[in-house]
Amino acid sequence: MTIKAKKKNTKKKVAASLAVLLAAASALTLTSLAVFTDQETVTNNAFTTGTLDLTVGTNSALLTATAMIPGDQVTSPLVVGNGGSIPLRYAMTTAMTPASDAGLSAELVLVVKSGVTTCTNAGFGADGTEIFNGALNTGFVGDPTQGADAGDRALAVAANESLCFNVALPLSSTAQGVTAEAAFTFDAEQTPNNP
Predict the structure, then answer these.
(1) Are 80 and 55 in contact (CB under 8 A)?
(2) Cα dist. 164→95, 105, 108, 120 in Å?
(3) What is the dihedral of CA 80, 107, 170, 66, to 10 degrees?
(4) Of residues 145, 144, 150, 147, the one with CA closest to residue 195
(5) Mean of the pLDDT values across residues 93-122?
(6) CA distance 119 to 163
(7) Smallest Cα–Cα separation from 137: which of 97, 190, 87, 172?
(8) pLDDT of 119-136, one tens digit each?
């Protein structure tokens, strides 16, 4: 056999081998393999949001006094609680009604305390921690602005605290026959995820 014939014969063998390999590869891709599988489903994935619920002992007439004279005072407790399912912090602001006498509301002295044992006129001032002392028309505790602020009061879930409110007409007052009416507004916000 000549060299030329040998080369031709080798080329035929290589071509035949390639054809066999291509056919085998093609057959493998067309053949499906049996594979065992399994699947499980995890059900009942429920998500419930929390509730923010600030409670106060009364929504009307915490403090009232008629025919006050210089030196008189009125004292009353107010229980502030967390009736929700998440911890909260709260603040209080005071607003005077439009018909209030501005002079009287500036003269009346509001004192708010926490931790008072006896919240009465006779017992006021004996103990507790003062959290506000100033003119009634500027009364506040904490700051209702979102986020942690100085003076904000924190309450855990189901917790409450008793605040003692006292309003006094100073001996130096000259206001006669006038009325001041205040509204105390309590604002609460969540404490988790709210720096």
Answers:
(1) yes
(2) 18, 19, 16, 8
(3) -70
(4) 147
(5) 94
(6) 9
(7) 97
(8) 999 888 889 999 999 999
Q: Give the span between the Cα atoms of 108 and 74, in whole angstroms.
A: 11
Give SS3 for 80.
strand
Residue 28, both tokens: 């493998």
Phi-psi region of 62 (alpha: psi -120 to 50; beta: other; left: phi over 0): alpha
Q: Six-digit token pair at 115?
A: 């931790």
* Tens digits of residue pLDDT in 158-170: 999 999 999 999 9
Rounded mean pLDDT, 138-159: 98
Which whole number is the average pLDDT over 145-163? 97
* pLDDT at residue 5, rounded to an integer: 55
Q: CA gyration radius for the chain?
A: 40
Encoded tokens for 77: 């407790």
Smallest Cα–Cα separation from 154: which of 105, 190, 102?
190
